[in-house]
Amino acid sequence: MPDASDAVTEGIRCLALVKDPASLAALLTQSGATLAGPWLGPLPPCVFAQVLQHVFHGPVPLRIRMQTAARLARVCKTWKPAVEAAAFSLLQFDVQDRDVLAHFDPRHGNWRGGLQHVQGVKLEKADSSAAVLASMAASLLRDLPIRIPDLGGTARPSSPSLGPEQVKRVASVLAECPKMEYFDADTAAAAVLPHLTARYKHLTRVWPRLRAIAMTWTHSLDDLFAVLQKVSQLETLESVKLSVYPPVATSDGHRVSGKANARVQALPRLKELSVKASSGVKGLWDAAAMLIRPTRNWRWSRCKSIANLELSNLRADTDLGKVLLPQLTRLGGTPVRLLKIDIEPCSLFLGASEPMPSASKLLDKVPATIHVVDATCAAYGQPASFAFDDRLAAILARPVSHSLAVADDGTFVPTTGEQPPGQIVAMHTDGPLPFLKFFVRFADLASQFIISEWSRADLPDLAGL
Prior knowledge:
It is a single chain. The chain is of the alpha/beta class. Among the domains are: about 1-85, no CATH class; about 90-145 and about 155-305, Leucine-rich repeat, LRR (right-handed beta-alpha superhelix) (Alpha-Beta Horseshoe). Helix content is about 35%, strand content about 20%. Helix 10 (about 220-230) links the parallel strand 4 and strand 5. The longest helix has 16 residues, at about 130-145. The N and C termini lie far apart (about 75 Å). Mean pLDDT is about 75; it is low at about 1-20, about 30-40, about 130-160, about 250-255, about 295-300 and about 345-350.
């Protein structure tokens, strides 16, 4: 009579033949303590890789991944590289977790081999949300139209900093992930990234495959732009997401020197750029624009096109009306599929005194190369309407040229009209109903340059908003 180990071996061989990763994964997990490596000799590596992908599929916490990987690695030493590759393709951990960092220490950690297989990293911090909310609250109080007495600095927001040794340990782990394609630094960015950029002159040697980076910045803007200078060396980047909430500044606001902006390079493969900032961050749009266009010669761009450009948390007049809209023409040489503009959430909630710019100012400044502009600014379900003026009245007096529908991918498609519109702008406006209005203009089919005047379009699905 065959013993239990023979039965398990035969079962694994049968599963390998039918390539049933789900069943084999369950068998490996349940019987890992009794299996020996030589019994799995006939198992094809590709099947084993599928099995491990199933075992570690989905949002499995890192500590559970480590426990499962340890159980499987004990079965056979030759399994360990394959187990590491499957278990640690994504690292999501608290930067203050010394135990996890010890396991991935590049010199002595028992899972240091897994760093060579990491494709994505998300850093977490237990107090990250509290730090961001505190900084936003401070910005909110600064913009109130009443005098807030000084409480001796006790309410000054600050993101708790990591100790130098902890920063060094986190940075050493990140520096050993050459296959990393996605990096979400969260609020740990201000502590970890300056250490990495100071240690390595060229980040391309550290992360040659990095395609996306996201960071929430709660420290000095000077440090942020020093980091952006190094990050902009990564020509593989396709997505950059910045959420900027610096500490409370002096009375003249947060300022960024032109010299710092000048050293930010353009990213030739950039497809998505999102910038969210607390009010009063001056110069941030300049630096964001430099990621798209590297010099003052705005007719030349290294970016072939941008799929999504999002600029949010703007003050209605100070940021949107006086800074962003006058500079939109700087995007004239770069095709943008979607530009999304939004104001800071607290403005409408508090009934802020800053007025929205006129609708015609937005329409006049939008370059022909931006296909869709979503300027439906809103906060807490309340729309923020662009101001009504004579030019907008003249546009609304023209006949409706198109009827639009929303496609499955979220884009607007024409249901009536002789040709598709070359440009679409959606926004709320004062004046006649409906408040949500869509404006279109048309391109010359030969040159693709916008040549028509603005006219209104209907979107029946959203009528009455």
